[in-house]
Amino acid sequence: MAPEEDSPTSRFASLANPTYRKLWWGGSFIFLAMQVQLVARGWLAYELIGTNTALGGVLIGFGVATLIAIPTGGVIADRFNKRTILVLCQIANTITALAIALAITGGIIAYWMIVAASVAGGASLSLLAPARMAMTAEIVDRSLLTNAVMLSTLSIQTTRIIGPAVAGLLIALDGFGAEGVYYVSALLSAISIPLTLRLPKGAPTGTLHTGPLEDMFAGFRYVRDRSELTRLLLMSVVVVVFGFAHTAFLPTFVEDIFERGPADLGFIMTAAAVGAVIVSATLANAERTKLASYQARSAVAMGLMLLLFAVIPSWWGAIVVMVVLGGAMSAFQSLNSALVLSIADMEYHGRVQSLIMYSYSAFGLAALPFGILADKVGLRETLTAMAVIVLVATALFDRWRHSIASQQIDAL
């Protein structure tokens, strides 16, 4: 590996690496497949049941699956060939999307099937994400690690622009609907498979323990013994749970509060993705020493924009807010991953990334109680409380960061 550098680098430097380009393109197709499926899943669930609780129920299926699969995903990423893990997850996503499409075609689609598909999606992502992030750290120089993470985020967020916009338009199109969107998702997932098969195996690095369970606990101990990793993990859980859960209820905002249709659901999700792409491209050459400060600022921006989104009465005002909110969410997520990878030893990358992903599991689990609360007291009121919690938590975690830095200086 090349030595670390704190000076800015070219925004697209990592794409000069042909192996990273293959990983990047394969990821772009599978995440595009997931994005179009996400819009169809939420709209279909709301059409079948028509409540915030139903939307939360779909997301809690995702959360339960990730809660179970995440620790396993980290261990698997550190014990087995990462290419095999990625390909199997892509095959699973293809089969899931095709199954839902055929169920709609056959007129037998039911709410429980959507929840089951959400469970399968959560399990697949829990295995795919740690393996993909660990492979990224293996195939690029350490000096380009932040750049590679940001470019991966850029590709994911670009799919969030294309996916929701296309899915929303297709759902509204006569003769296509959610059924056609699921067929498109299956096709996109299938395209990612041959691209991934061209990657190196991504064999395990470092020395592992005697069994998967012991490896899992070793990962927990590794994070526990490093204060900054512990802080990043806990901050990720709190900020993501309260800052990201609003995405589950966008169908309600679109259809009930603003009285608009499925194309507008895709539009508002695309607005968030536009902000995410802009921020990802901007931070692609960020100096490593400034990542922690940028992360804290992104969390503050997320809380403020969520607070504004909760009370804004105008549809176009909500679109503008969503652009900024999407950028803040993307920045927080990618900066967190970059910070974790820059701190952790390579043989622990899979397990540490899987622990960071617990925040997304908790976010899925929290969506159901948030949905129940929103049905009882109001969606705007619920989002307001969530925004306040994000802001207070960010202040506390940033204070903890400065305390850790001071202790490290004193120890020198």
Produce the secondary structure layout:
Layout: H1 18-48, H2 52-79, H3 82-105, H4 111-139, H5 145-172, H6 177-197, H7 212-224, H8 227-244, H9 250-257, H10 262-283, H11 291-311, H12 315-343, H13 349-356, H14 358-377, H15 379-411
Helix pairs in contact: 1-2, 1-4, 1-5, 1-6, 2-4, 2-7, 2-13, 2-14, 3-4, 3-6, 4-13, 5-6, 5-10, 5-12, 8-12, 8-14, 8-15, 9-10, 10-12, 11-12, 11-15, 12-13, 14-15
Précis, in short:
This protein is 81% helix and 0% strand. The chain is mainly α. It has a single domain, classed as Up-down Bundle (Growth Hormone, Chain: A), CATH 1.20.1250.
Element-level helix/strand string: HHHHHHHHHHHHHHH
User: In CATH terms, what is the fold-level topology?
Assistant: Growth Hormone, Chain: A
Give the class-level CATH name. Mainly Alpha
**Terminal-residue CA separation:** 27 Å
Question: What is the approximate shape?
Answer: globular
Low-confidence parts, pLDDT < 50 over ≥5 residues?
1-8
Q: Fraction of residues in helices?
A: over 70%
SS field, number of helical segments: 15
Structural class: mainly alpha
CATH architecture: Up-down Bundle
State mean pLDDT (0 to 100 scale): 82
For the secondary structure, the number of strands is 0
Largest sheet: none
Count of all domains:
1
Radius of gyration: 20 Å
Approximate strand percentage: under 5%
Name of the CATH homologous superfamily: MFS general substrate transporter like domains
